[in-house]
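Why should sequence recovery work at all? Because a backbone constrains its sequence more than one might expect. Tight turns favour small or flexible residues, buried strands favour hydrophobic ones, and helices have their own preferences. The token representation captures these environments compactly. In the example below, the structure is given first.
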């Protein structure tokens, strides 16, 4: 199906949606539970946590951040609590569904560049913000005009059916999972112990290549940069004579740009400057690496990103975080006499980390 975006028309967001604010809920006040808590983040469909408080917004709506990661829009299938940095968009179209929601959420994310300089997408501005959408036409090809002007001052009507059909036409298979939120494992973080990153993996500083100097005549290898998008992969490039790519299964960490963006790479790759590469023992699974990647990203963005500190001066020396540890059958911590991973002899519980990831929704698809 052809989008023909040149033929799309402008619509005020406030005439398409009833836009409702989220509500502040501090981390200290959040109760344990299974309800989605939507934050102003750019990943995980906006789900920042699961809480016990009852949802304040309905499913079949779009969450849109106006502060924090401004402009991040996600279709929400289930009821949820939205933080006060997120607005909820309730469609005025009665037959609104996930396909239309996913289509419009994508359009909304294309607007976030307008707010990349610290501007907030306030509720007032959001109501009068303009997006372009495909419109309905008469049988003779002329635009259909609604005399009641429900969605547009000019009488244009969004082509809801086209948006739904377009999304259904995309080549994909719906993901299924046997894991549910309620079956997740308890983290018990108060029992974790501190480890330096340098003691649990080998750390190198990447290939330090220049993307603009790479050739793409016969692209075979991923090029990983300092981006927070697409697993950090900027694209594929040619093999460089004399430079061996890193193997799949390594973890990359952005030391600048999107500082702290951490990903498990599933193909061979080169890196740009300021990208560190972590290689773990062969016995460490991809699930475990995903667990550790989340901790690295959280630690770096909490301790370094907000203060403009250089992560590359710390990652191979004093950068660390807490991890779950192995225990003896009697429940006491297992102590490695060789102190391989910790000066105190603690050993990371690699198996628990893998099991935790696999118990998450869609974790069984790894």
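From this structural description, the recovered sequence reads:
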């Amino acid at each position: 199906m052809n989008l023909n975006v040149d033929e799309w028309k402008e619509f005020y967001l406030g005439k398409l949606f009833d836009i409702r604010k989220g509500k502040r809920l501090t981390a200290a006040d959040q109760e344990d539970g299974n309800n989605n808590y939507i934050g102003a983040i750019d990943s995980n469909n906006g789900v920042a946590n699961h809480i016990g408080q009852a949802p304040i917004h309905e499913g079949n709506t779009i969450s849109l951040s106006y502060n924090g990661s401004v402009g991040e829009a996600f279709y929400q299938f289930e009821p949820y609590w939205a933080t006060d940095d997120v607005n909820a968009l309730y469609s005025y179209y009665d037959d609104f569904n996930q396909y239309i929601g996913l289509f419009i959420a994508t359009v909304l994310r294309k607007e976030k560049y307008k707010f990349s300089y610290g501007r907030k997408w306030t509720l007032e501005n959001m109501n009068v913000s303009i997006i372009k959408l495909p419109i309905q036409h008469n049988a003779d090809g002329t635009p259909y005009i609604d005399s009641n002007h429900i969605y547009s001052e000019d009488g244009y009507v969004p082509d809801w059916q086209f948006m739904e059909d377009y999304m259904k036409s995309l080549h994909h298979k719906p993901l299924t999972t046997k894991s549910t939120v309620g079956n997740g494992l308890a983290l018990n973080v108060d029992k974790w112990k501190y480890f330096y990153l340098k003691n649990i993996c080998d750390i190198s500083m990447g290939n330090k290549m220049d993307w603009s100097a790479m050739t793409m005549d016969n692209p075979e290898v991923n090029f990983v940069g300092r981006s927070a998008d697409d697993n950090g992969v900027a694209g594929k490039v040619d093999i460089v004579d004399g430079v061996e790519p890193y193997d799949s299964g390594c973890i990359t960490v952005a030391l600048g740009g999107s500082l702290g963006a951490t990903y498990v790479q599933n193909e061979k790759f080169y890196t740009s400057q300021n990208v560190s590469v972590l290689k773990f023992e062969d016995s460490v699974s991809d699930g475990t690496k995903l667990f550790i990647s989340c901790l690295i990203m959280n630690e770096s963005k909490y301790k370094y990103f907000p203060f403009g500190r250089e992560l590359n001066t710390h990652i191979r020396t004093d950068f660390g975080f807490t991890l779950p540890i192995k225990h003896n059958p009697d429940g006491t911590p297992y102590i490695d006499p060789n102190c391989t991973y910790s000066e105190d002899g603690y050993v990371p519980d690699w198996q628990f980390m893998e099991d935790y990831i696999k118990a998450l929704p869609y974790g069984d698809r790894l």
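A few observations help interpret the result. Residues 184-365 form a domain with the Adenine-n6-DNA-methyltransferase TaqI; Chain A, domain 2 fold (CATH 3.90.220.20).
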